[in-house]
Specification:
Blueprint lengths: L1 H21 L5 E3 L13 H9 L3 E5 L13 E5 L7 H12 L3 E5 L6 H7 L3 E3 L11 E8 L2 E8 L4 E3 L7 E7 L2 E8 L4 E5 L7 H4 L7 H13 L4 E5 L5 E3 L9 H32 L13 H10 L1 H6 L1 H10 L2 H14 L1 H15 L1
Parallel strand pairs: 2-12, 3-4, 3-12, 4-11
Antiparallel strand pairs: 1-13, 5-8, 6-7, 9-10, 10-11
Helix pairs in contact: 1-7, 1-12, 3-4, 7-12, 8-11, 10-11, 11-12
Length: about 350
């Protein structure tokens, strides 16, 4: 019996450890145009382009007032997926007031809050444009005296406020729809492009002068920020879980999946092959109803008596108290344990504490 208990403790450690470590493992990845996304839709390549161009690059994980210490020369916002709060907009405006210029590349409408807050006389419509029935097209885009054939994909359009259209320089348009504009205010400059895809990894590759999207990104950065720190939006992107399997899944995802499988498997093994035999011998002296399978009633009773678990398993425990069907109760608990790692840890802890 002592050996079985030692085995239970060892297996418990092996079970709980992955559950604890999992909290420190990134099991979710940023989506969309996040600078942390290394996939085709991400902008990790843009960060590399900026660094290789001699800039210091800081990714804004949150728009806190601490960012004012950076005094960035340029703020880059690419296709945010989440809205901005008034407090966050206030920080962005403070940075602009300190001398930062801003580049917004977005086919969606979340960036409009920034444009409105800063007083940029333009809004992104959010309407997907097509040219010749295709959402992916090239359009001449003017940068100074240079004209580039920039590739746009699922672009939107820019609505220019008529009352101040003289203050805006149109850089690109197609079929009468404006794609990119430059705006010069008294204290800052802004460039707005109605497509964040032009700055994603997919379209910045290859990073040479033959790729006009790369030239566009390089030129804009150098024109709006000769040197210093560029602040790249990194906080407004949703997190999505790693797929269970996939060729391009990082190794940490496999470890995460493996740890979950091991955790659930070991939980079942510990409960049914180590702990239950101990209660099997103790059952006779405790008057457990003979209609229950050996040991299962005691385990069910322990779980429902645990203060912490009883609040989690309220529904299951209520059914068990009425029906006294321990096997049915334990089957439901095991199913819940497979879905909830924290619950699995709590269940195992409660059993081991009373087994010792």
């Amino acid at each position: 019996m002592r050996n079985k208990l030692l085995l239970a403790v060892a297996l418990s450690i092996f079970l709980v450890l992955p559950l604890a470590v999992e909290k420190d493992i990134s099991t979710r990845v940023p989506s969309g145009a996040s600078p942390f996304n290394t996939g085709p839709e991400g902008t990790s390549g843009l960060v590399s382009v900026l660094i290789n161009s001699g800039f210091n690059v800081t990714i804004a994980r949150s728009w806190s007032s601490d960012l004012r210490k950076l005094s960035p020369c340029l703020i880059v916002v690419v296709s945010p997926e989440l809205p901005y709060s008034s407090a966050e907009l206030s920080v962005i405006r403070e940075l602009v007031n300190q001398g930062s210029n801003i580049l917004v590349a977005d086919e969606g409408t979340y960036s409009n809050a920034i444009l409105e807050y800063l007083g940029v006389p333009a809004r992104i419509s959010g309407r997907v444009l097509t040219v010749g029935g295709r959402a992916v097209f090239t359009s001449p885009t003017r940068l100074g005296s240079t004209e580039l054939n920039v590739v746009y994909a699922y672009s939107s359009s820019i609505d220019v406020l008529e009352s101040v259209d003289r203050a805006i320089d149109i850089l690109a348009q197609v079929n009468g729809d404006v794609l990119a504009i430059a705006y010069k205010a008294h204290t800052y400059s802004a460039v707005v492009v109605s497509d964040g895809t032009i700055l994603t990894n997919a379209l910045l590759n290859p990073t040479n002068v033959l790729n006009h999207n790369y030239v566009f990104a390089y030129y804009i950065a150098k024109n709006m920020c000769s040197s210093g720190t560029i602040l790249v939006e990194g906080s407004k992107y949703e997190l999505r879980p790693y797929p269970a399997l996939g060729v391009e899944v990082p190794i940490v995802a496999y470890l995460h999946t493996l740890s979950r499988v091991l955790s659930a498997t070991l939980a079942v093994l510990v409960v049914f092959y180590v702990v239950l035999p101990k209660f099997k011998t103790a059952r006779k002296s405790r008057g457990v109803p003979t209609s229950q399978a050996l040991g299962s009633y005691e385990v069910a009773r322990i779980l429902c008596q645990d203060v912490e678990l009883s609040t989690v398993l309220t529904k299951e425990c209520d059914v068990f108290k009425k029906t006294r069907r321990a096997q049915q109760f334990l089957s439901k608990v095991v199913a819940l344990m497979k879905k909830d790692r924290e619950l699995a840890s709590k269940v195992l802890k409660a059993i081991v504490e009373r087994a010792t």
